[in-house]
Structure formats: C-alpha cells, structure tokens
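Lay summary. Proteins are chains of building blocks that fold into shapes, and those shapes determine what they do. In this project we predict the shape from the chain. Here is one chain we studied, written as its sequence of building blocks.
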Amino acid sequence: MAEWIGIERRGRRCYGFDEIALVPGTQTINPNEVDTTFEIGKNKFKIPILAAAMDGVVDVKFAVEMSKLGGIAVLNLDGVQTRYENPDGVLGKIAKASPAEATELIQLVYTKPIKEKLIAKRIKEIKNKKGTAVVSCIPAHAQRFAKLAVSAGADIFVVQSTVTTPRHIAKEYKSLDLFKFCKFMKIPVIIGNCVTYGTTLELMETNAAALLIGIGPGTACTTRGVLGIGVPQVTATVDAAAARDFYYKRTGRYVSIITDGGMSRGGDICKAFACGADAVMIGSSFARAKEAPGRGYHWGMATSNVNLPRGTRIYVGTTGALKEILFGPAKVDDGSQNLMAALKTSMGSLGAMNLKEMHNVEIIIAPSIQTEGKVFQVGQRVGMGK
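And here is the predicted shape, written in a compact code that computers can read:
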C-alpha cells in the first residue's frame, strides 16, 4: 500500500472525509425506522454524537440540555469550569478579546489553579438536574480527579491527551498506569487519543469502555501544523475499527470507537460511521449553539499551553439552538444542522438498519465528491461552496 517518497523510504497514502463517498446499497429503509443507539458500558444513548470537552462548547447548562435530548456532553475538568466560581465572566472576556489578544488571554486564564471543590460542585449541578455527568481530564490529573468525580456521582470518565499510548516514559513525574486506572474505576472509562491499529489494540487491553480516535483534525486545533503529526480521519477510523473487530473476535469484549474531530457537517458524520465508528465527537458544530458558553467562539484544549499552544480561538458564530443543530429544522444550508436527520436519512439511503450495519456499506475514493457540479455553489459561496 505504501508508495516510495524517496530513497529507501515509503509513505502510506491516507484519506480524509473530503476524499471519499458512500455508495447506496441494494435496499433502502425508512429513515424513521433506523436505530442510532450507542452504548458505553451499561449506558445507552439515542444520539451517537458526543459534545467535545471544550470550554467554549460544554458547561453545566449545556451538559444538562444535551442529556435531555438523549446525548452526551463532556465537561472539561481542566478548564474554566473548575478554575473559577463564576466562569461566565471569564468566558465573556475571551469572547470579547481581539484576535491578537486571544491566545495570550486564554493562556493567562488557565494559569489559575484548579479548585478541587468545584469538580464535585459541577458534577452535582449536572446530576441534580437529572443530567448524565461525563467528565474529562488529562492523564496527569486522572488519578486524583477520578476519585472526586466518582464520589460526586459522575457516570463516565474520560482520560484525554493529544497522543495517548499504553506506555508513557517519564523520569520527571510518575506517569498514569492506564491498566491499573481502568481496573480501579467503578464507572466506564474512555481513553484518547490515538490513530493507529497497534496502539488502539493495546489500549483496548486496559479494559477501557471506549477509545477516542483522532489527532489534530479539530477545527480549532493546530497540532498538525505545530507538531507535524496526525493521520486523516478516514484512515485513522478504519484502522482503529479493524483493531476493535480483531479484539472482539479474540476476547468477546466490544470496545467502542469514537471518531473525535474533523467533522463539521452531517455528511462527515455519516462517513465516520461508514468507516467503522460507533459514535463521533464534535466541537465546532455545538459551539454554534445558543446554549454553548463560548458565545460563538471556539478553542481547543491545548490552546492554553503556556509554552507551545496547539490551538487557536476561532469564530464559528451562533446559528441556532442545540435542539435545532441535532434535530432541526435546519436554518442554514451547509449541513451543520439537523445532524440526526442527516444520519438517519443517510442510513436509510444506504440500507443500514443500525450503526453496525453502517460499518459494512461501500466506500469509494472520490476526491471530486465535494466539487462535481457545484460550480455555482462555490462561486456564490453557498451550500457546499462555503
């Protein structure tokens, strides 16, 4: 599969969402009758689209609303929600900052220490309003924060960093033992992020309930530019799904694959499921919701790094309510709203009754899929031409 890129050096060709298309099958199904249920442990959700643990996307109110609609929103325990008693004021300052001031201000905001009492407080605020409490932190904080989160009633715990492997070598500090951590936890654990077959397979051995797949594809992420690393999401998802299927055949335990990032439209989400995803995680589309705390602005979790920020603040605007983004009616023409109807309609057109059947639909390499016949849309910057 690899091609020569120079003397004695090969490079494998990898693919992103814009380079593929899905081929309709030999049957079609009423979109209202397809099953989009997603499971993590004993938890079942009718919306297989997770809201990413980004401060411009998820706060307590957003998490509660997402729960009411049938999905999951992940609260960032390393963010402003656990650093400030009144995070709204801080988020307002970030939204008002000029582009030149934004990165430095975000770095300054995140220098304030995390208050452990706020971890329990935020989780209890979600639970008191009958929401599903899903929280996230970096590996360095996981051991300490997990105990607080479980005691406060968290339902799912996410350990997330730019690149996660089963073996992290460090002399400066003690690294997290993911095997012991997952064994210790009494609630499902999601681990991320990774992009290769081998690492995915090894991380499944930790007893994690799900894995996040994706390095650097996020709208506000600059990891690929700053560090030069990453694998396009189609290839990353296909490889991870192959590892999941092999692991399931060998052990009988199914570990869900969650494609994280790189999707801004319904079509991208549909393609992720066709590539093997059990669920997807997105940020920018939800950052456009009226309920999102970022006021139309969106930034990644690594943007605040004081030495080497790997993200930027971007303006995505506010286009509608969370319910409209998930269930419509769509008020925009770019495919960023009514995501669930897009998924169900695609499943119906492809003849897939459930998400697992989506894994078997035909995929073709089609780099012209975004531009073929779209000259007027591109020229007028509407629909697929935006």
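What the prediction tells us: The chain has a mean pLDDT of 92.
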